[in-house]
Amino acid sequence: MSTLMHQGRAGYAFFERNWNLAKRYWGWELVWLVYNVINALSVTLISKNTQLLGNVSQAQVNSLTLYLVIGTSVWSYLSVTFDGITDVINFERWEGTIEHTFMAPISRFTHMIGSCWYAIVHGMLFTFVQLLVIAAFFRLDLSQANYGTAIFILLLGSVSFIGFGIGASVLPLLFTERGSQMSYIVKAVILLVSGVYYPISVLPGWMQPAARISPATYVLDGLRAALQHNAAIWSPTIWASTWPLLISGVLSVPLGLWIFGLAERYAKRTGKLKRNG
For the packed helices 147-168 and 215-229, what is the interaxial angle rounded to 10 degrees? Predict the structure, then answer.
């Protein structure tokens, strides 16, 4: 019990440390918040363009608007959460503390999970602010929304996002100068194949299997069913998104930690941790 409490306090310490780092670099936080909001507004305004095509009802425009709002919100949450995990390594290098962290008497699981929970809270906060701004621009019809199901799907999907983020965080660990930029490739692939702004059925046939691997695909399907069609947690539609997310979470987190462990041992052996800054 004492060991469990020690690990729990250590995990919270990483949560608190990352919060303090965010306050130190608050300028970057503001930049990315403004960027995410403007990007979401730009994409969502595409729905209004459909009225110029003719023979499009207001109900169809409203449905497309909500479809894009959900897509931009999930993408913002995924991006902020993903970056929050990978940026842990960058911050440690900037601060010159990465070697001390890796020598601390705590497990790597505690280190990464503590940082990941901060990334999730951080992502939810960013997404909430973004939704408030979007709501001020558009009259969203949420009369069919099932918020309980939406929260359930988002939290379940967060576990898979954590696994992918931990795996991608080896890039800034191994490649000091360009590792952070390299992690954007992973996000770009997820954006392309997951149906963020369009259904995956429009993808070429050879790309659609990749969409079935991405957890973002199932998060988006589940959220759209919950917010647009009032789907309950126990409904077949939600279950079709739930079981892939369960499998993805169970597999991706241990796999991500294993990959990070390999990269950490390689970085220590080759002296890459000395390259701070």
Answer: 170
The whole-angstrom separation of Cα 11 and Cα 100 is: 16
The number of residues making up the chain comes to 277
Residue whose structure tokens are 């992973």: 186
Q: What is the C-alpha to C-alpha distance for residues 47 and 173, in angstroms, rounded to an integer?
A: 40
- Tell me the domain boundaries of the chain: 2-274
**pTM of the complete model:** 0.83
The pair of structure tokens assigned to 153 is: 């799907």
Q: What is the DSSP string of 228-245?
A: HH---TTSHHHHHHHHHH
Q: What is the pLDDT of residues 13-61, one digit of tens each?
A: 777 777 877 777 778 788 888 888 888 888 888 887 776 666 777 777 7
Query: How many Å apart are CA 1 and CA 54, to the nearest integer?
Result: 66
Q: Which two tokens stand for residue 273?
A: 């941790």
How many alpha carbons fall within 13 Å on the CB side of residue 219? 27
Residues 6+ apart with CB under 8 A from 32: 80, 83, 126
- C-alpha distances in Å from residue 53, one per residue of 43, 190, 197: 17, 30, 19
Residue-wise pLDDT tens digits, 144-160: 788 889 889 988 888 88
